[in-house]
């Protein structure tokens, strides 16, 4: 949570530094954008955290088939939820922004930010279940590695993109980190989990 707060502060710092005369508006719109993203990430985190006990129990019982079945169900549930939220972000984000402001310029900018920032939200359907799932199975090192990978990519994007292009390009740091981390985490899980499962069986 502390690192998430640092990342949010970094967004504001970079918008202030590179936003010029529009920096105040950009920061205000970024706050609205983050409010929308919480509607996605909070329930998503609840889904994956709530299933940790199921994964932990079956992993402890060395039941690989049930662990994989549970993962498939969790990912599917997350996919449905994120798919719906992605469509809402891309189609009715302006209506959400109007809850906070009636200024047309702010509405347009905040809606654009939401649409851009949420482009990679489907990647969270892989990232969240694997991070929380590995943690729930006691494989904290791997869960932490997958989590820090995403935050590291995001952090790099927030600082590099506006320096190389413009202030609002930092919005792409989120979809880039979501997609890249999901790809790496998914591939790593497929390669690592059978070996970790065999090690667990050997311990018993």
Could you explain the architecture of this structure?
The chain is mainly alpha-helical and 204 residues long. 83% of the residues lie in helices and 0% in strands. The chain is built from nine helices and no strands. Helix 4 (64-91) packs antiparallel against helix 7, helix 7 (124-136) packs antiparallel against helix 8 and helix 8 packs antiparallel against helix 9. The longest helix has 31 residues, at 173-203. It is elongated. It starts with a helix and ends with a helix. The model has no long low-confidence stretch (mean pLDDT 90).
Question: What's a quick, concise take on this entry?
Answer:
The protein is an all-alpha fold and 204 residues long.
Provide key terms for this protein.
about 0% strand, elongated, mainly alpha, 9 helices, about 200 residues
Order of helices and strands: HHHHHHHHH
Provide a count of the helices. Answer: 9
Residue share in helices? over 70%
The proportion of residues in beta strands is: under 5%
Structure summary, number of beta strands: 0
How many angstroms does the end-to-end distance come to? 35 Å
The radius of gyration over CA amounts to 19 Å
Strand count, sense and barrel status of the largest sheet are: none
Helix/strand class? mainly alpha
Principal-axis shape equals elongated
The parts where pLDDT drops under 50 for at least 5 residues are none
What number is the mean pLDDT? 90
């Amino acid at each position: 949570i502390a690192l998430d707060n640092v990342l949010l502060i970094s967004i504001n710092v970079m918008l202030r530094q590179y936003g010029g005369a529009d920096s105040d508006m950009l920061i205000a719109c970024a706050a609205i954008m983050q409010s929308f993203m919480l509607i996605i990430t909070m329930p998503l985190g609840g889904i994956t955290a709530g299933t940790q006990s199921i994964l932990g129990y079956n992993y402890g019982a060395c039941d690989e088939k049930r662990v994989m079945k549970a993962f498939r169900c969790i990912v599917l549930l997350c996919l449905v939820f994120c798919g719906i939220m992605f469509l809402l972000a891309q189609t009715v984000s302006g209506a959400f922004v109007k809850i906070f402001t009636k200024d047309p310029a702010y509405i347009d900018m905040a809606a654009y930010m939401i649409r851009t920032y949420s482009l990679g939200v489907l990647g969270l359907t892989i990232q969240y279940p694997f991070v929380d799932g590995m943690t729930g199975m006691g494989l904290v090192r791997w869960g932490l590695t997958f989590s820090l990978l995403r935050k590291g990519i995001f952090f790099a994007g927030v600082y590099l993109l506006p320096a190389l292009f413009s202030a609002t390009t930092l919005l792409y740091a989120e979809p880039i980190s979501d997609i890249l981390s999901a790809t790496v985490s998914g591939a790593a899980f497929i390669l690592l989990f059978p070996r970790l499962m065999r090690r667990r069986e050997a311990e018993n």
